[in-house]
Amino acid sequence: MTLSFTSDLGPLWPYLFILIAGFLATEMWRWIGVLVGARLDEASPVLAWVRAVATALVAGVIAKMLLAPGGALATTPAALRIVAAGIGLAAYLVLGRRLFAGVAAAEAVLIAGWLALDP
Questions:
Q1: What is the DSSP letter of 60?
Q2: Assuming Cys at both sites, which of 9, 42, 44, 45 could form a disulfide with 13, CB separation 3.0 to 4.6 Å?
Q3: Nearest to 88 by CA among 71, 108, 62, 116
Q4: Residue 84 pLDDT > 80, yes or no?
C-alpha cells in the first residue's frame, strides 16, 4: 500500500503516524525511568551530578532567552527581559517558591512592558 495524502487512511495519516511514533519512542524511556528510578538513592553522587547538569541546562536556556533570544522575544529590549526575569525570581522567592507565581509574574511584566513600548 502506498501512503500519500490521498490514501485510504485519509489526509490525516501523517499526523497519526507522528502521534504513534512519538508515543512509542518516548513511552519506552518513561517505563525504564519508572523501573530504574525506584531503586535510585537520592543522595547518590550520580543523581547529584544529574541534578547539576539539569540545573545547568535550564540556566543556559534562560541565559540564551535573556541575552540572545529569537523570534518575537528578540523584539523586546534586553533591559525589559532582564527586569522581567528579576521580578519573576523575586515573586518566586517571596510567594513561597511557587514556580507558577514566578513565571506568571515575569510574563506579566514582559507583556506589560512590551505593550507599553509598542508604538
A1: H
A2: 9
A3: 108
A4: yes
Residue at grid coordinates 523586546 = 76
- Residue 99's identity, in one-letter code, is L
Going by C-alpha positions, the residue among 77, 83, 85, 78 that lies closest to residue 118 is 77
Residue 51, C-alpha cell as written in the block = 541534578
Chain-centroid distance, C-alpha 103: 12
pTM of the model: 0.66
- Maximum C-alpha span of the chain: 61
Is there a contact between 93 and 77 (Cβ–Cβ < 8 Å)? no
Contact 39, 62 (CB under 8 A): no
Residues for the chain: how many in total?
Answer: 119
